[in-house]
Amino acid sequence: MLTAVALSDLFAVYAGVRIHAMTDGDGGFAFIPQLELDDADALYGTAGQFQGITFLVCGIVFIIWFHSVRRVAGVLGPDRFRTGPGWAIGSWFIPLANFWLPYRIAVSMWGASTRLPADGEPYKVSFWPVNLWWGLFVTATLFNRYVAQRYENAETLGEIRNAVLQVMLADTLDIAAVAAALYFVIRLTTMQRRKASEPPFGTA
Questions:
Q1: How far is CA 87 from CA 14, 31, 105, in A?
Q2: CA triple 47-50-51, angle to 5 deg
Q3: Could you give phi then psi for residue 115, rounded to 5 degrees?
Q4: Are 73 and 111 in contact (CB under 8 A)?
Q5: Rounded to the nearest 5 degrees, what angle is found at the Cα of 104, between the Cα atoms of 100 and 108?
Q6: Do residues 170 and 95 make contact, with C-beta atoms less than 8 angstroms apart?
Q7: How distant is the alpha carbon of residue 150 from its chain centre?
Q8: I want to staple 8 with a disulfide (CB 3.0 to 4.6 A). Which of 51, 159, 164, 176 is the partner?
Q9: Is residue 170 within 8 Å of residue 147, measured between CB atoms?
Q10: What's the Cα-to-Cα distance from 23 to each of 4, 11, 14, 82, 158, rounded to whole Å?
């Protein structure tokens, strides 16, 4: 589903390039055939719908996965958590707090899933995959809301051209956030499986 979101963003970037190319130059819309303009606008609308659907479905699947790995992390490192597994779902739906609580849960899951060091080795945990994913996710979310409003309010040719360019940048940023999320998902899942297969949870 994360790959589907990235592909929908790429589709939107392509549709945005078409719109931006049509509005580039002094002639602008005045010299564009109406049928060609309608086709480009319809494609842009379809891309937006595709983005909305894939993001919604991916969000549902991601939260289910997030809750699942939280339950496993609670077994691997119960001392890392102050709240129950249900917060892995509920934290996403609390206004404003959802910009912070899921991140704290992700950090705790990452720490709980990290392999214990061998005797004599220092215990160090690198959280950069979590920080990268969350930083890009929050930035992309806020920027997308901003540019969507700019595009809706655009009236003149110059405003439309600039808004489309900003939407394309937002879509590109979203692709980067999806890539970071994919890396986070794979790493965390692998870490949990590895730790669960080793003593005291399993056999090495």
A1: 38, 55, 8
A2: 85
A3: -65, 140
A4: no
A5: 170
A6: no
A7: 21
A8: 51
A9: yes
A10: 29, 19, 15, 54, 8
Among 191, 183, 181, smallest CA distance to 58 is for 181
What is the pLDDT at residue 26?
Answer: 52
In DSSP notation, the chain reads -HHHHHHHHHHHHHHHHHHHHHT-SSSGGGGS-HHHHHHHHHHHHHHHHHHHHHHHHHHHHHHHHHHHHHHHHHHH-GGG-SS-TTHHHHGGGSTTGGGTHHHHHHHHHHHHHSPPPPTT-------HHHHHHHHHHHHHHHHHHHHHHHHHH--SHHHHHHHHHHHHHHHHHHHHHHHHHHHHHHHHHHHHHHHHTSTTTS--
Give the pLDDT of the chain (204 residues) as one tens digit per residue.
Answer: 999 999 999 999 998 888 777 766 555 554 566 666 677 778 888 888 999 999 999 999 999 999 999 999 999 988 889 889 999 999 999 999 999 999 999 999 999 998 776 555 556 778 999 999 999 999 999 999 998 888 788 777 777 788 888 999 999 999 999 999 999 999 999 999 988 887 777 655
Distance (Å) of CA 103 to CA 42, 100, 132, 146: 37, 5, 11, 22
**Predicted TM-score (pTM) of this structure:** 0.85
In this structure, which amino acid lies at residue 27?
G
